[in-house]
Amino acid sequence: MEAATAPEVAAGSKVKEASPADAEPPQASPGQGAGSPTPQLLPPIEEHPKIWLPRALRQTYIRKVGDTVNLLIPFQGKPKPQAIWTHDGCALDTRRVSVRNGERDSVLFIREAQRADSGRYQLRVQLGGLEATATIDILVIERPGPPQSIKLVDVWGFSATLEWTPPQDTGNTALLGYTVQKADTKSGLWFTVLEHYHRTSCIVSDLIIGNSYAFRVFAENQCGLSETAPITTDLAHIQKAATVYKTKGFAQRDFSEAPKFTQPLADCTTVTGYNTQLFCCVRASPRPKIIWLKNKMDIQGNPKYRALTHLGICSLEIRKPGPFDGGIYTCKAVNPLGEASVDCRVDVKVPN
């Protein structure tokens, strides 16, 4: 229930005296005859009528369709004045609007407001030949209707141009603008691209090459967005531009080279029964073939030795060498451009 926050006189409320023609003549009591010389006097006015209009009602009072309107308007006057409500200068429709008048206030109640309830309501407080008035403007609003149509005007590059017409029904209040959304056919999800937009045409930019887009537009007022929105019948196809790449000719560099050892084999001494490894590094292109020799004899395929080559690193593992495994070991690299070799001496000692 609306209540006054402070005793403030309404802007525009006024008190006036009735003309002699409006004043009611004294009424004769039942016990007096028509020709009685002493008429009954009206009670004296102790307090002039005055209306205290709450501050919130001094501007247009806005409600949504279906909301309850419950206005409490305090007034003064003694003895109790008569309070009369009118809607746009006419009597209230008692089927929709109810009024309760008390000693010091009057209540206007509408259970479910409709747009037809909008208008100017006037409260008149009368006491004898005096009268005070206050005016309240009530506006009942709802969501607007959708824009009547939307059209895809043009598509170029990464952008599309749209046009639409305003809705026929604005919801009994001014529009706050339009909300424009886009959806690509791949995902089908709608994304907002413009909000509170006031024109009836726009350009949507930053569209993705290769996608096709649909668009829709909502109208918006104080109650929110329209419940539905028209969708473009044509899709905006963002075409891929035909791009031809021209490569500049360049001379192919020849990386071929004959084998060359960047790290030679190192002489070593080992003990009988303990595995020993030999390492060296070679560079060549194309990839060379690696051959291991012992005392100038090929040892490829001998299970006592395991040879590995990875990224130019050559290794030879001598498994549990014996006294006769000592000698000169050679690593030879061969490719079509040439060959290279390195060697080392391996001594095997018997522990004491």
UniProtKB/TrEMBL annotation:
UniProt domain Ig-like: residue ranges: 259-343
InterPro entries: FN3_dom, FN3_sf, Ig-like_dom, Ig-like_dom_sf, Ig-like_fold, Ig_I-set, Ig_sub, Ig_sub2
Record's subcellular location: Cytoplasm, Myofibril, Sarcomere
Location of region: Disordered: 1-45
Domain Fibronectin type-III, chain residue ranges per copy: 146-236
Keyword set, alphabetical order: Cytoplasm, Disulfide bond, Immunoglobulin domain, Methylation, Phosphoprotein, Repeat
PROSITE patterns: FN3, IG_LIKE
SUPFAM superfamilies in the record: Fibronectin type III, Immunoglobulin
Summary of the function given for this chain in its UniProt record: Myosin-binding protein which plays a role in cardiac function. Seems to regulate conduction in the atria and ventricular conduction systems.
Family designation: Belongs to the immunoglobulin superfamily. MyBP family.
Protein name, as recorded: Myosin-binding protein H-like
GO cellular component: myofilament; sarcomere
GO biological process: in utero embryonic development
Principal location: cytoplasm
Pfam families (UniProt xref): fn3, I-set
